[in-house]
Amino acid sequence: MKRHIIAAFVLWHGSAMLASALPSPGAGLNRSYWSDPTVQAEFGTWAGMLGVESEALQDDVFALAQRVQAAVDGVRAPFKPWLDLTHTRQSWKMFVAPHRFPTRLQLRVAGASGEWRVVYEEGRPEAGWMAARFRNERVRASVFAWGWPAARTKWRSACAGFARDLFAELPDVERVQCRFAKITSPSAAEVLAGEEPAEKWVMPIEVGREDGAP
Predict the structure, then answer these.
(1) Positive or negative CA dihedral for 127, 131, 135, 140?
(2) For 92-112, what is each residue's pLDDT tens digit?
(3) Domain range list for the chain
(4) pTM for the full predicted model
């Protein structure tokens, strides 16, 4: 009897893991993500290959994604209480396309003079404030997510947190700015030619000491 109970539990848990790991659109159903140039470039490529308009293709894909998500949710429904209790949900998604327009985080501070200086920038050892924290795997994943349009609320909260730490550590700092450099990944030919990738600064947020940070 005991072995039957154990076998039933293993079968139940294994089924829950399989249901949790089923591929699904997930956060991709938030169409504000689709405004990112990486996503638009991917749709443009597929629309060209299929001979259809990009906007029409996006509408069709969204309708199909809604149906797929509904089906997956139905399969997962019996296992949801167990997945919530054990915190064993599968949140990672497979990579579906190269990220042609990645972001690079930068934090700047300014004192009474108003002159900005960079205290942290990804890939710049000389601007390495709290670099160990930013190398943490979970923080890196969060930084990547904050660079997408749909994450603006979380991005604003993250910037406020960075500002609190900087104000506490640097008494002469009056303002903190968080922003991303949006970069176009170079092609192989551009790399061989030594051409620098084009970039622009996006999603800037400024926090002042008077805004409530210590």
Answers:
(1) negative
(2) 666 666 778 888 999 999 998
(3) 2-86, 103-211
(4) 0.71
